[in-house]
Amino acid sequence: MSEKQPEAANKLAEAFGESYQTVMKSAVDAQQRNVKLAQGWAEAVTGVVESQAETNRSLTRAMESFVKLADETVKSQERTSKALAESLDAYRDVLEKAVSMQERNENMVRNFFGGAPSELQRGVEESQTVAQNIMDGSQKQMEAFQKMMGEAMDSYTSLLNAPFALYQKQMEAFGKRSE
């Protein structure tokens, strides 16, 4: 009987050992599949994050370039606006001096000839009208330029906001994909 006991114990251990080995092998296989799935997921997420990081770097570089260009454009437009304002002031000075000189000439001719004041008066009025038309034209040019500047700034603002809107849409799309 004592010889049968070890043999029965060995058979029982073998029977349990085989099923235990099968269960353990299944558990190890399942664990390996889970690890591969987790690695695949981690690699995919890492790829997406790296892609987004590169996109963000590209957007940042593009925005920096645009901001520099916009700043240079604004400075150039400020210089142009200043030059136009100075030019308008110079026109006004010239016109005022021309009107003043015309009035002095009228007085001199009136005093010298004494008989043609109405012709001279009309000449002064025409000169004043021409001077006023030039001033009005210069003023219209200045207003048109200011309007153009406003529209350009609106365009620049829209362009600056475009990368942020794109980024926001990407983030929304990424959020929907992850759900």
Q: Which shape, going by the Cα principal axes?
A: rod-shaped
Largest sheet: none
- Termini separation comes to 66 Å
- Assign the structural class, choosing from mainly alpha, mainly beta, alpha/beta, alpha+beta, or little secondary structure: mainly alpha
Number of strands: 0
Question: How many helices?
Answer: 2
**Count of the separate structural domains:** 1
> Rg to the nearest angstrom?
45 Å
User: Which parts are unreliable, with pLDDT below 50 for 5 consecutive residues or more?
Assistant: none
Key terms:
2 helices; 179 residues; rod-shaped; mainly alpha
Write up this protein.
This protein has one domain (about 45-179). It is built from two helices and no strands. The mean pLDDT is about 80. It has about 180 residues and is mostly helical.
Summary of the model, kept short:
The protein has 179 residues and is an all-alpha fold. The protein is built from two helices and no strands.
Secondary-structure map:
Layout: H1 4-113, H2 117-178
